[in-house]
Amino acid sequence: MSTIGISVVICVYTEDRWEDILAAVSSVRAQSRPALETLLVVDHNQALLDRLSKEYKETREVRVLANAGPRGLSAGRNTGIAVSRGEVIAFLDDDAVAERDWLHHFAEAYTDPRVMAVGGRTFPIWASGRRPAWFPEEFDWVVGCTYKGLPPGRVQVRNVLGGNASFRRSAFDVAGGFATGIGRDGDKRPLGCEETELCIRLTRAQPDAILLIDDRAVIHHRVPEVREHFAYFRTRTYAEGLSKALVARSVGADKGLESERRYTTRVLPAGVARGLRDALLARPGGAGRAAAIVTGVVTAAGGYVLGSVRARRGGATFSVVEIEEGPGREGAAA
Fold it and tell me: Which terminus, N or C, of the chain has the lesser number of Cβ atoms within 10 Å?
């Protein structure tokens, strides 16, 4: 078994997810390959901070701390990185649970010293109990899950997906932390791409770095009822376009849209074709899925255009911070 120490960071922001947070922590504590520690980073919510501190007061391997930066997921992650003691830092969403061998598969990949990041596969848990008939698997990233079109197995990728991801600590020494001003801030827009931007920045700073997705490292992510509706789908795809514009402005369109070109020219047309075929065969949701794919492309493109204009005018910016060692890293794993 690998001796690499892994710290798990779970960023939380609302008491509405209390039971989900407890389930996420329990899934980490039940790992076949134990985590070195679990860090719960609370995003500017004193009531939640106090409640979690009381909940885990007697649990040595779980630490609760406040986000030391501006409000938002990126700053929360950076706070966790700064105080963590592991050679590898894994990130788990606060409304997700990890399968028992999640960390085992991450650790296995890091036996290659060139590997700087490893992601896994995320399955949706629909609030309604099943996938909406109109919702295309090609757009599961809308609800924070692995989408149809990603290659299976353990494969090298441009970027990992943040809700189920890990990074070698030295990656942050080389590239800096997660950019603030681009990622999630509660339920506000824009809603993503901070992992993409970090991964591109990392491989630019260290060209021989290897980034992987191992689909055996599985988590299950809750999808609340509001996110099963078409209105959320449109909003989220539009926000993705806004965020992608910021990334492309920072790292260049060639790298910033490298994976998206294959996705839009191969994966999505095939999805539309399947939806239309299912409609012709009178299968439920076929026409809806085809229409949703087209809508998703159009709204994302609209967000990208507007985001590009804003970025050129200086109206939308983000910043990258260096990770400074925070209090509580005494005895950090080598």
Answer: C
